[in-house]
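re: ur question from yesterday

yeah so i grabbed the chain u mentioned. its 116 aa long if i counted rite. heres the sequnce exactly as i have it in my notes:
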Amino acid sequence: QVQLAESGGGLVQPGGSLRLSCAASGRLLSINVMAWYRQVAGKGRDLVASMTNNRMTNYADSVKGRFTISRDNAKNTVFLQMNGLKPEDTAVYYCHVEDKNYRGYWGQGTQVTVSS
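ran it thru and got these structure tokens back, copy pasting raw so excuse formatting
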């Protein structure tokens, strides 16, 4: 069984910063892709940022230049540094990892609220 433990969400004012963390543990084969998604109530889950094992990144247009994804392969951990937060960034953020056999796992989600 694989567990993803997320942390770092919370309430922040517009223009502020947060750093999300997600640590994977359990019976996990070599991780290929680590990613962050977000979901607003009543809508689908959208990709925010992803990073492959060889450090290739992909970002949603809405977060480019503000968010940075990084990972620590030795600790099976992925981070999302979020700067210049806007009210429209408010959502539940989910960590997702995909192993070398293309099996995917989700975290439980962490709430990010951007409000004055």
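noticed a couple things. The chain has a mean pLDDT of 95. also The two ends are 40 Å apart (CA to CA).
anyway ttyl
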